[in-house]
Amino acid sequence: MRQIVFGFFDVLVNGHKQREMKPLYLKELAAFCKSNNISMYVVTGVKKEIAEPIVKKNNLLDYFCPENIIYIDDSYLSSLSPEDKELKEKKFNENNLAEDDYHKIHFLKTNKLDTNDTLFVGHDIWTDAFYLRRYTKANVILIKDTISNNHNPFIDDIKELQIITPDFELLKKYLVEPIVFNYSYLDSYATKALQRNLIGAIDFAKLDISSIIKKKQEQEALKKLNENKKID
Question: Which pLDDT tens digit goes with each residue over 127-159?
């Protein structure tokens, strides 16, 4: 791997899961990455005026170059459609600590990183392991203590996901050894979840069952008529 990219809340700093984040591995990891020309990034998903005091409080500048700590800025917001920009600004106004998950995808796709050589460290199976990996092709590992599903509690078991309690030696292994990442079980889980959501969105009370049955009967009658014509 040539890059390791960290999420912010619930990965490096305390966040929505109310778990104490103590990334004691950062000192060794930063030294190792520097000596091996591996770039380290943090993508905050939060505006600089909000995130920068949190960065300083957690001493992240001891391990990450300032230019590699990525905040939401005007250039990112101007890249959005007017509708999306308005929605995000509304979200930030309601909660200035709200994290923009798409910002991580935008950074990986627009900063000329070779995502095949990029490891992303996140905590959410939906926004990180499924969507970010799907749209950027970066491989993803998840933090065990703060793992979530679209920021909700995660209680299922998905085979082959790389869910870890991080330490330096383990992260080093991901960076230097060929690890097999298998997302087929996650993709199957996500497909079923999307199907359930789609079915759940259907208002069955408004379905005209009699019309559906009548249409089905007409299709069967037409099929039978065609079969009889072939016999004649």
Answer: 999 999 999 999 999 999 999 998 888 877 899
Domains of the chain, by residue range, sit at 3-183, 196-231
The pair of structure tokens assigned to 34 is 């520097």
Question: Tell me: the pLDDT tens digits for 168-185?
Answer: 999 999 999 999 999 999
Q: Which residues pair with 39 in a beta bridge?
A: 3
Distance CA 93, CA 178 (A): 43
Per-residue pLDDT, 35: 97
Do 60 and 42 meet the contact criterion of CB atoms below 8 Å apart? yes
Residue 136 exposed, middle or buried by CB count within 10 Å (0-12, 13-18, 19+): buried
DSSP for 113-175 reads --GGGEEEEESBIIIIIIIIHHHH--EEEEEGGG-EETTEE-----TT--EE---HHHHHHHH
CATH 2.40.50.1020 fits 3-183, yes or no: no
Residue 122 contacts residue 7 (beta carbons within 8 Å): yes
The amino acid occupying position 160 is E
Q: How is residue 199 written in tokens?
A: 């079915």
Q: Alpha helix (H) ranges present in 11-73?
A: 26-35, 48-57
Give me the pLDDT at residue 227, please. 64
Parallel, antiparallel or unpaired: strands 118-122 and 152-153 = unpaired
